[in-house]
């Protein structure tokens, strides 16, 4: 009677899965390969570069470091793109909160928005809050304002409804052209500076 294959699947809370099995003919090594993320099918991956599986040592510390270094980042971005292909449609809300220094914190649950912010706009994910932020290395206020505006405009072009919450608690929705309609909203070039109504 043939032996049953030995394997395991690790699943994250976001529905990402890794397949793990001993590497044939190589004792002391395992193969780790990404699976389709939850809710997706092969048709959702047509325009996605799929990350390849890797071989790792049986040593847990070395294996974890190798997976983190060689697989996880590309797998996460590919999964977000595939998940964004499962649904479309305008009107998904995104909230951007500006701290007193004008630094954005983006709250979004949509995979396409996460893909754009993390994969293309180089935001980072705060593991404590699950929100997207600009890297701490970006300190220049004009660069922060420019990067925030660029992210807002890109999300709006993709059909998301962006709400900006200022440090003083006021909120507004920018227009499609990136300009605030009423005079008491921030100007287009600098989200940090609201204009007062006379």
What is this entry, summarized?
This protein is an alpha+beta fold and 198 residues long. The chain has three helices and twelve strands, in the order ββββαββαββαββββ. Helix 1 packs across helix 2.
Description:
- The chain has 198 residues and is α+β, with helices and mostly antiparallel strands.
- Helix content is 26%, strand content 24%.
- The protein is built from 3 helices and 12 strands, in the order ββββαββαββαββββ.
- Strands 7-8-6-5-9-10 form a 6-stranded mixed beta sheet, covered by helices on one side. Strands 1-2-3-4 form a 4-stranded antiparallel beta sheet, with helices on one face. Strands 11-12 form a two-stranded antiparallel ribbon.
- Helix 1 crosses helix 2.
- The radius of gyration is 21 Å and the shape is elongated.
- 24% of the residues are buried.
- Mean pLDDT is 79; it is low at 178-198.
């Amino acid at each position: 009677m043939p032996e049953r294959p030995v394997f395991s699947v690790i699943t994250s809370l976001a529905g990402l899965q890794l397949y793990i099995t001993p590497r044939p003919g190589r004792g002391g090594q395992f193969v780790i390969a990404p699976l389709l993320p939850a809710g997706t099918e092969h048709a959702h991956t047509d325009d996605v570069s799929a990350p390849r599986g890797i071989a790792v040592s049986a040593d847990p510390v070395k294996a974890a470091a190798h997976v983190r270094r060689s697989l996880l980042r590309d797998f996460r971005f590919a999964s977000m793109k595939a998940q964004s292909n499962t649904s479309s449609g305008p009107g998904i809300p995104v909230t951007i909160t500006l701290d007193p220094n004008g630094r954005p914190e983006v709250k979004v649950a949509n995979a396409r928005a996460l893909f754009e912010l993390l994969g293309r706009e180089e935001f980072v994910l705060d593991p404590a809050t699950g929100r997207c932020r600009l890297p701490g290395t970006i300190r220049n206020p004009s660069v922060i304002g420019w990067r925030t505006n660029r992210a807002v405009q890109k999300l709006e072009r993709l059909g998301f409804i962006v709400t900006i919450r200022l440090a003083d608690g006021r909120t507004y929705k920018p227009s499609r052209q990136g300009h605030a309609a009423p005079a008491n909203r921030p100007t287009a070039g600098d989200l940090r500076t609201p204009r007062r109504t006379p």
